């Protein structure tokens, strides 16, 4: 990509490392990391969006506390898989990715989405049963923002290779 000349020294060193070379030259390593990253994305974003849609009023027959109990472990597993699979893919092309505006936007929005999720848990998580009786507008706004942020993160992630 055209950004490689502007790359910081640490990114060039990572890409030139044995690990970066392995990720580029191995027949299976990069595709395996890419598939793991996609699995992580699905496991993280799917449950989060299902929970957010429940907060927004869909599926009211399922209590929010029960939805949270069921979906949160999947989302956390997805986050762990993403955190483990992203760096190896980055290492393969660290020079250009370190200055890639799409990747930077994706990571920034992912940080905002995770902060939003943590804030939701901090503010509303202790009494999800109360939200079953009536969801305040701020909680609905957080849920809607979450859906938008995670869909944007997913879209940006899938377009990194093309822009």
Describe this structure in words.
This protein is mostly helical. The protein has one domain (7-162). The protein contains 8 helices and no strands. α2 (18-25) packs across α4 (64-92), α3 (29-55) runs antiparallel to α4 and α6 runs antiparallel to α8 (137-159). It starts with 8 loop residues before the first helix and ends with a helix.
Number of strands: 0
Largest sheet: none
Oligomer: single chain
Task: Give the number of domains.
Answer: 1
**Helix and strand pattern:** HHHHHHHH
Mean pLDDT: 95
3D shape: elongated
Low-pLDDT runs of 5+ residues are: none
* Structural category: mainly alpha
Tally of contiguous helical segments: 8
Keyword list:
elongated; 8 helices; mainly alpha; 163 residues
